[in-house]
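Dear colleagues,

As part of the handover before I leave the project, I'm documenting each prediction I ran so the next person doesn't have to rerun anything. This entry is a single chain, and its sequence is reproduced below.
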Amino acid sequence: MLTKRIIPCLDIKDGRTVKGVNFVNLRDAGDPVELARQYAQENADELVFLDISATEQKRKTLADLVYRVAEAIDIPFTVGGGISSVEDVAVLLNNGADKVSINSAAVKQPELINALAQAYGSQCIVVAIDAKQIAGKWKVHLVGGKEPTDLDLFDWAREVEQRGAGEILFTSMDHDGTKNGFANAALAELSAAVNIPIIASGGAGTMDHFTAAFTQGKADAALAASVFHFGEIGLNELKQNLKKEQLAVRL
C-alpha cells in the first residue's frame, strides 16, 4: 500500500503566508520560512509553496523566497505561481524546488505540460486544477479562481495526464477554507479518471476530514493550510490518528 501524504501549503502574497475562504478575504498567517521550518520538523511529507498573486500580477515567482524556504527544510518542496516557460522552471529548480506546479499557464498553453515533462521528467510536474460546481458541473477556473472557463474538471485531468503531468493538485473552490471537509465525491471520480496521484485540497477542518479524503475520496495526498498555520491540527497527531484508521502514513 502506498503511503498517504500530508502536505501543508504556504499561499504567498507580498512575501507573507496568507489564507482565505473560497479564495477571498485573505488574512496573514505568518512568515513562510519559519512556517516551512516548523512543518519539516513536525514530520510533514512535503511542502507546497504557491505564489498566489504572481499570475494575476503578471510576474514571476519569488525565486529568492523559494531559495530561503528550501534552505530551511529537508522534505520535498513544490513551487507554483507565475510559471509560464521551461526557463521559469529552471530558475525555481536551481533555487531549491523539487517539483513545480502549473495552473493557469497549463490551460492557456497545454503544450507547456509536454515541454516541461520532456525537459524535467513527469515526476517533477504537478498540474494544479482549481474548480467549482456550476449548474452541477465541475468547471476549471484560472488566475487564482477569478477567471471561469468552460473546461470540465475530469476531461482536463485526463488531458494533463496524457500530456505528461506526474500529479494533479485538485482544489475545490466551493470547499476552500470552509473547514467542512474535502470534495470527496469529485476526488473519487478524479481518482477513477486518471492513473496519476491526486492531491486533495480545499476543506480540511478536522482529522476525520483527512481520513475521509483518503477512504471516500481515494486521494493519494491531502493538502491543507489554515488548520496547520493556526495550530488547530498538529501534524504528528494527525498522522497517529490516520494510522489508527489503518491508513499507511510515514511517522
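Residues 4 and 249 are 5 Å apart (CA to CA). The first strand starts at residue 5 and ends at 13.

All the best with the project,
I.
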